[in-house]
Amino acid sequence: MSAEDHCSDEPTRLENTIMAIFSSQTPNYRAREAAPASQVRLTAGADTQDDCAVFSFHGNQQLVVGSDYVRGPKFRLYEYGLLTEYDLGYYLAAANISDVAAMGAHPIGLLSVIRYPPAMTDFVFKQVVLGIHDACETFGAPNVGGDIGGAERLILSATALGVCRPGGALLRSGAKAGELVCLTGPTGTAGAATAYFRARDTSDDIETRHREELLASWARPRARTTAGITMGESGVVTSCQDTSDGLKATLECVASASGVGITVFEDRLRIPPPVRAVCRHLRLDPLEVVMGDSVDFELLFTVPPEKQDPLEEMFDEAGAEFHSIGVTTSEMGVRLETRSGQRLPLPGKSWRHQQN
């Protein structure tokens, strides 16, 4: 039996994999400072193997907590052989940390749950853990603990932790009429990837020019932590939500929570080249893909128009960016204003969590 085929028990995996990857985590933890005269330090992390992680808080700040379950092997692209177990672990961490970013908080840590089937080898288990670990390192939220153990199939869940200044958490309910509606980046690539690979109808142009970017939307999703922290510290952003349920659903949610309407301008929507290519190949409406249930992790937020320039300066200094796609209105409802001036319902399908 090769090393890659070996299946050991949970204590052995804990010692050989978890301890090896997370050794010296606690002394190497970088303190977080989310508010003046405040600091968060890790007192006991995954390397101590205690029942819980321990953080030390100094000063006045608020804790932000969010949890997401990931379907493990039920990802379509995983079933097609296009994603690895490492990719699933990376996605789990990014998806959870994105929620902390959407609250305008500094990520401080992640708790992960990895339940694995008896036939999962030590090598594959390690790939899941490494995916989580590497994403956490990328986005500045160390995997400080959680749970591992057996199950009938691979089950992945996590809880992300963050901190922000008192009253600084960005809610979905703070938008007011007359504000700009902005995005940290274009949407639709993850939805286009799902449509393309599900169709099993390949294109030489897409395979050559866009395949890697399409796969990366699922294998290496980007939690916009820098943008989220910048917005939280700016004091001018009035509402925020990530677009993991799709742009249309996010717009509808922010509008409903804030009690405002939203008008999106067609000529301000950016359509990524991979999305255009897939839509051209499969004869899809690009606006439906950009607006639809594409699992992107951009941040949608609102800001008063007179605060746009100062916020752009802060984003530039942080190495982040955003663009305006619409405005909030006192007239309820979410609509699209076309280039010809027509006002139409938003195209695309809103994500519903009970759907497959």
Mind summarizing the main beta sheet? 7 strands, mixed
User: What percentage of the residues does DSSP assign to strands (E)?
Assistant: 15-25%
Q: How much helical structure, as a percent, in the residues?
A: 25-40%
Could you list the spans in which at least 5 consecutive residues all have pLDDT below 50? Answer: none
Kindly name the structural category. Answer: alpha+beta
Overall number of strands: 13
Average pLDDT number: 94
Enumerate how many helices there are, as a single number: 12
Q: What is the 3D shape?
A: flat
Distance between the termini: 38 Å
Task: Using the CA coordinates, give the radius of gyration.
Answer: 21 Å
Order of helices and strands: HEEEHHEHEEEHHHHEHEHHEHEEE
Give the strand order, joined by hyphens, for the main sheet: 8-10-7-11-9-12-13
List the helices and strands and how they pair.
Blueprint: H1 10-22, E1 39-44, E2 54-58, E3 62-70, H2 76-79, H3 85-102, E4 106-116, H4 122-139, E5 143-150, E6 155-164, E7 180-183, H5 189-199, H6 204-209, H7 211-219, H8 225-234, E8 239-242, H9 247-258, E9 261-265, H10 273-282, H11 286-291, E10 299-303, H12 308-318, E11 323-329, E12 334-337, E13 343-345
Parallel strand pairs: 4-5, 9-12
Antiparallel strand pairs: 1-2, 3-6, 4-6, 7-10, 7-11, 8-10, 9-11, 12-13
